[in-house]
Design a protein that fits this description.
Blueprint: E1 2-3, H1 6-20, H2 35-48, E2 56-57, H3 64-68, H4 74-94, H5 96-151
Parallel strand pairs: 1-2
Helix pairs in contact: 1-2, 4-5
Length: 156
């Protein structure tokens, strides 16, 4: 099986290596990023057998130049193009409205992250200003007491 996603290939090979070394999956799938999808892959690999699956990373969006330079084979390019068409069909099945909602939520989340970063910076700045003013007040009080101590009569 070929994929143009290095992350997918690496994670899938890691799962297959766990099978080959007779180790089970350690963490609950719900705690893993995209755990529901990885659980499906895990179950399919378990049913098929880890030795019957081979994963490779292929160049995505290849051009004829990549085939000439032997970066990708013509068969891999055809397979990748077909996979892109199937991915587009999958997106269409779930509807453009879902995709649009996800984009909007992503945009709102990014704005919220920026806002919270600004808030935390302002809190730190406010604390530093407070600390500086408090230190100045303490220094002024200490200096004031020294001045008064000099005016006070000395005990013999």
């Amino acid at each position: 099986m070929g994929s143009d996603s290095r992350s997918f290939v690496d994670t899938a090979n890691q799962i297959l290596n766990h099978f080959r070394n007779h180790k089970g999956h350690r963490r609950p799938w719900k705690l893993v990023s995209d755990g529901d999808l990885w659980e499906h892959f895990y179950n399919a690999a378990q049913a098929k057998g880890p030795l019957s699956i081979k994963l490779t990373c292929v160049k995505g969006n290849a051009e004829p130049k990549h085939i000439d330079d032997e970066i990708i084979t013509e068969i891999d390019e055809i397979g990748n193009d077909k996979a892109d068409v199937i991915a587009d069909i999958g997106t269409a099945l779930h509807g453009e409205s879902v995709l649009l909602a996800a984009k909007r939520l992503h945009y709102r989340h990014a704005r919220y992250q920026t806002f919270m970063t600004d808030v935390s910076r302002h809190i730190v700045e406010a604390y530093l200003i407070h600390r500086e003013l408090t230190d100045r007040i303490v220094e002024e009080e200490i200096a004031s007491h020294r001045y008064h101590d000099k005016e006070a009569p000395q005990c013999p």
